[in-house]
Amino acid sequence: MERNEMIEVLMEKGKVSREEAQAALENCDWDLLDSIIYLERKEKAEKKSEKTIIEVDIKENKENGEEKNTHNKSSQEHFGGVGEVIGRIFRFIGKVIRKGNENFFEVRKENEKPIRVSLTISVLLLVFLTIPSVVLLVLGLFCGYKYSIYGSSMNYDGVNTIFDEVSKSAESVKKDFKEGYEK
Fold this sequence. Notes:
Elements: H1 3-14, H2 18-27, H3 32-41, E1 58-60, E2 67-69, H4 73-76, H5 82-102, E3 103-108, E4 115-118, H6 119-128, H7 130-142, E5 146-151, H8 157-182
């Protein structure tokens, strides 16, 4: 909002002269709300029994037909403070952990009961113990174990197809190795 517009709005809301409105705005670093409060404290504005309400005008841009707000952009977009951002991060982490606990990494051998480990624990093991985890997974493939992901909240068909293809490849490598060893 331009300074002349601010002076006019303050004159209208505060029922003061142009000079008084300009002086109040200059004293308050051209902040309209602070100027109204400043005038009320000096008893130059009309006191009402109700609270003072500042209305924000919405002007229509005749060229584009778009609406244009005259107040600051910071009041339009509310991103919150540091606490709200940290709260959003913890809610996101909580959702990820909850989904990981509802879904399982399954290790099974042909006729045995499968071993199910939470995806959260599986990812933690893979992150913190990468080399031992990968070595054990590869050894398990050559020992005949098959891996899959199981859970109710997501569809894992693509991942399970890849796991099946990897176990078929491990079986063919194992078969080729046995044939080469027997010759």
